[in-house]
Here is the input.
Amino acid sequence: MATSDETRDALIAALIRLTRTKALSEISVREVAREAGVNHGLVHRHFGSKANLVRAATQRITAEVHAPGSLGQAAATFRYLSERPELVRVLAQACLDGRRDLLEAASPTPEHVCAVVERIQEGLDGLGLAETPNPRVLNAAGISAILGWILFKPMLEVGYGIGETADDDVLGLLELLDLATA
Here is the structure.
């Protein structure tokens, strides 16, 4: 018999897997439970509602993306999310839903942001520019570009004619950015 934590983990993982092929609004509690191999009543027992399950999944994804040691690692973040595009879809859907609790759950901690911004500022200072961009905006633009690339890649492939090596090109650019902020 699974422990409470194992059941919670299985339900979160099942929800994330289901987002590979469906929008959050199309996924039912029963589907999540079936995918996890548990009774649907356990969703309500462990989370209270589908909305709370989505919040827990969003928090899990954010914790994975912003794990310790991920500071200033744009290339590593890109690799991680490229291998798990369903995570980007969950975060995007959380943002599109506009619920404040989901937006907060999808955001890194203030401490993480400050640490990344410090590294970016140090990198910018090392460039010796007369005027440097706002490191918070630069960080936000970078993560937006990563998330947007992954989310809109099918449209970019068709509309912009990008080839099979485009991910490698983006990765190369992000590795340069990492070097500049190291």
In short: The domain at 1-48 is CATH 1.10.10.60 (Arc Repressor Mutant, subunit A).
